[in-house]
Amino acid sequence: MLNLFDTRGLRSQLKDSIPVAGLCPTGSYGLQDSMRSGFTSVKNELLPSHPLELSEKNYQPNKDKMNFSTLRNIQGLHAPLKLQMEYRAARQIQRLPFLQSSNLALDTLRGSDESIGFEDILNDPAQSEMMGEPHMMVEYKLGLL
Amino acid sequence: MATLTVSRPPFGGFSFENCRRNAVLEGEANKVGCSLPAARKTGTTICGVVFKDGVVLGADTRATEGMVVADKNCSKIHYISPNIYCCGAGTAADTEMTTQIISSNLELHSLSTGRLPRVATANRMLKQMLFRYQGYIGAALVLGGVDCNGPHLYSIYPHGSTDKLPYVTMEVASLSSDWFLCSSCSGSGSLAAMAVFEDRYKPNMEEEEAKRLVRDAIAAGIFNDLGSGSNIDLCVITKGKVDYIRPHDEANKKGVRTGDYKYKRGTTGVLSKTVLDLEVVEETVQTMDTS
């Protein structure tokens, strides 16, 4: 349960990398899902529904940031730069946007091919019952939308 | 079913979609006066002891759902790796999933290093995961095992803090006599079990003595705490051998009925008797349409 005291601490996390707007999850067809998230309100959009929501959303970027800054302090600027270049290259190896890509190169670089976490067990995107609309997603990716 | 989710690729892991709905539902339920069903917990007595050659872990076997016993014989000592076992108290699903995930990760890790996994590795993995979820994963664990450095025993709390016993690296402001440090208890019945340990623990015990001590500690928890009950499970881990004794002691056997309400033939007097023979007139077979 979110009480008012929690919001003061959470506000410091609101400046994180992933934009906050969009905390209110949309249902199918992009509309408000009243059954799951209740009626719309400004407070609903801005504040997370669970104290862990923001921290989980930003967990991977924060971990990467921390690792890169440590690497920079130890080995100099070239180390994180080279690694980030490799990550960007690996991130571009994808299937079409509405299909599930294996991200094998990215996983190998990150080291997450040797560990199992909740993201592999719960809500596995490969087994999701809904898929994006192919035409819209490709147009969005190509910037035509 | 096609939808219009265009911008974000779907990702796995925890989804917080239903949290607002749950909060609203709980508020409504409290207004009416009833409460939502509670998660199944293992209100529990678990404990572990380091003895001369290894570690003995003990647990009771009752799982509760609020004030009702949900499982009379659940197994609370989970496998992590061939030389490491872990007892779990708290929300039953959380302890189960947490130990399974850490067990898989430890197996991958040991395949990658080519060595037998260490207890400290398991401890570090568990602590980092539990801290990441800030105590929302309600798993309090007693982790014990024997690795290349000897027998080790850790207790891990749901928010991610851990205590290593018996070495004096504990920063907890507790009575740091060293026999206290060589044992560890957790759960609702832990006070009763800890009382037994404080009374009778000695360092470098023999295996039989250690098993007796753990059995008595768990029995104290079972008989004095309502959240613990049924049988006592033991797991003795030594270098190269694991003895998973389930159940070690059936402390609470289901009672046998002493009386019988069936009456003997002849108790009631028979006044008269008529026998009617049934005659089979016709027999037909009708096949069913099973297509």
UniProtKB/TrEMBL annotation, chain A:
Keyword NADP tagged: no
Domain of life: Eukaryota
GO biological process, one term: proteasome assembly
Keywords from the UniProt entry: Chaperone
Gene Ontology CC, one term: nucleus
InterPro entries: Ump1
Family that this chain belongs to: Belongs to the POMP/UMP1 family.
Official protein name in the record: Proteasome maturation protein
Protein source organism: Sphaeramia orbicularis (orbiculate cardinalfish)
Taxon lineage: Eukaryota, Metazoa, Chordata, Craniata, Vertebrata
The encoding gene: pomp
UniProtKB/TrEMBL annotation, chain B:
Record InterPro entries: Ntn_hydrolases_N, Proteasome_bsu_C, Proteasome_bsu_CS, Proteasome_sua/b, Proteasome_suB-type
UniProt domain Proteasome beta subunit C-terminal: residue ranges: 251-285
Gene Ontology biological process terms from the UniProt entry: proteolysis involved in protein catabolic process
Record PROSITE patterns: PROTEASOME_BETA_1, PROTEASOME_BETA_2
Subcellular location: Cytoplasm; Nucleus
GO CC field: cytoplasm; nucleus; proteasome core complex
Domain of life: Eukaryota
An MF annotation (GO) of this entry: threonine-type endopeptidase activity
Described function: Component of the proteasome, a multicatalytic proteinase complex which is characterized by its ability to cleave peptides with Arg, Phe, Tyr, Leu, and Glu adjacent to the leaving group at neutral or slightly basic pH. The proteasome has an ATP-dependent proteolytic activity.
Quaternary context: Component of the proteasome complex.
PANTHER family according to UniProt: METALLOPROTEASE TLDD, PROTEASOME SUBUNIT BETA TYPE-7
Official protein name in the record: Proteasome subunit beta
Organism of this sequence: Sphaeramia orbicularis
